[in-house]
Amino acid sequence: MIDDAAAEAAASGAVGGVLDPEHPQGTFVLEPGVMAPLVARIATSEGSGTHRSMCPFTGAPLVTFPVSSAEDVAACVVRARVAQRAWARRPVRERAEVLQRLGRIVLERQSEALDLVQLETGKARRAAFEEVADIAQVARHYAVRGERYLSSRRLSGMIPLLTGVQVHRRPVGVVGAIAPWNYPLVLALAEALPALLAGNAVVLKPDPQTTLTALWAAEALDDAGLPAGLFQVVAGGPEVGEELVEHVDHVAFTGSTATGRKVAARAGERLIGATLELGGKNALYVADDVDVDAAVPGIVRACFSNAGQLCVSVERLVVHEAIADEFVAKFVRAVRNLRLGPALDYTADVGSLTSAAQLDKVTAHVDDALARGARVLAGGVHRADVGPYFYAPTVLDDVPAQATVAREETFGPVVTITRVDCDEDAVTVMNDTEYGLHAAVWSRDVGRARRVAERVECGSVAINDGYTLTWGSVAAPLGGWKASGLGGRHGSASIDGLTRRQTVVTSRGARFGATLDSLYGLGGDTPSRVLTTALSVMRRLRMS
């Protein structure tokens, strides 16, 4: 999976030439002085201690930064409120220009962004590039469509012609975004960009492991012309996120279902909105009419991109019995040929898991499945020869329903195989989970695939693709069903969650005395008779 020279370089700690090979775990990957301007962007009084993050490729230290206190979080939100009031008064077109400039900056400076993302997460460079491409796409989309999404709507009123109705969208105020480590650039900005476009301010709490990427995003927004105070970063662990929820007007959380339930509960107590993207146990159905050779590369990518540390990654393959032997043989061969590596270039197909905790979880899931009788068709081993947290892309067969890997989200490079006899059974297997985030269906017959998709209980379904086209279709809403989340992101769905609706109703007839009050002034049953006649006419004319 990795040649001898690459393995030797990984063992020495030489990642893209940025480490000291003589002492890889005692030398900072990134020069502290160079990182100082980014670290200085953290909203902190520097009295709550520090955090040191590590490079997953080698275990060497990346950066040490101060964390934020509860008082820092509260003060940060106060500053954000002040900045937000002026920002909301600006025309949408001016706010959109900031997003346009940000999209250009991300593409122009992609090399430094890719390096940071890789060094903090351990992912392969192609997976890191997906983040750059996504933010450029999202920024462009909202810059172009934002004015339309936020425009006021005219609706029919109670009395045609005499009643005018307008529905406006107003910003909620300060949005608190709590982002995980797996896609640090995307999840730092995916909620922030529509929030800023809508006239809000954003306070971001990234995972401690990926704080540098969040700070890079803050710098990029600053360079794009975003006024001070509108996008701030607080740093630290779960306690900082909990404090943030206590002060903001809307919380956007991406993470585990268990933590998401707690966030939702507290948001409900405070009567603020919450957008939650949570766990998944995503399934992909391979129908009996597929072109196996054409399908395998895309299905491999659907399962193992970002080492499986992706909310919409496929963890369950549901394969029609008629083509199962051929498909499994070719799929396993392709998986075994995937290249692992820690390089800051495009030579590796699969990178590292991000932390020891992720490695432990993946190992525990695989070991439990094997103890219950599952078979390993590929992988199933910790690749310590490549780096401390590398795990071989793994395919498991004959996995019993009681196995942990069959029920719980693994969030790693592990996929199970289940054989079925028909589409009906495939749908049953795909829906047999508490989650409902994403699924995929592979078939030459698109009509057939769509009929299967309509019956799958999840927020999005890809046909003849794993996840890329779904995630990249940023005009379309994305959101989980069941235990996979609340609310949605992308397109108008983000704007819906990050704004408040305000209805303004005008009595146009007041200028010439044609009002309800003047009608009621006629006394007796006259007002009722007039209104009855009017309602009957509106019904016959099918007026809404």
Question: What does it look like?
Answer:
Keywords: Oxidoreductase. Belongs to the aldehyde dehydrogenase family. The structure is a single chain. It is built from 21 helices and 20 strands. The N terminus is likely disordered. It starts with a helix and ends with a helix. With 544 residues, it is an alpha/beta fold.
Which helices and strands appear, and what pairs or packs with what?
Layout: H1 4-12, H2 32-39, E1 50-54, E2 61-66, H3 70-88, H4 92-108, H5 110-121, H6 125-150, E3 153-156, E4 163-171, E5 174-178, H7 184-189, H8 192-197, E6 201-205, H9 211-223, E7 231-233, H10 238-245, E8 250-254, H11 257-270, E9 273-277, E10 282-286, H12 292-304, E11 314-320, H13 321-336, H14 356-371, E12 375-378, E13 394-397, H15 404-407, E14 414-420, H16 423-431, E15 435-436, E16 438-442, H17 446-454, E17 460-463, H18 468-472, E18 481-482, E19 485-486, H19 491-497, E20 499-507, H20 516-520, H21 526-540
Parallel strand pairs: 5-6, 5-8, 6-7, 8-9, 10-11, 10-16, 11-14, 13-14, 16-17
Antiparallel strand pairs: 1-2, 3-4, 4-20, 9-19, 12-13, 15-18
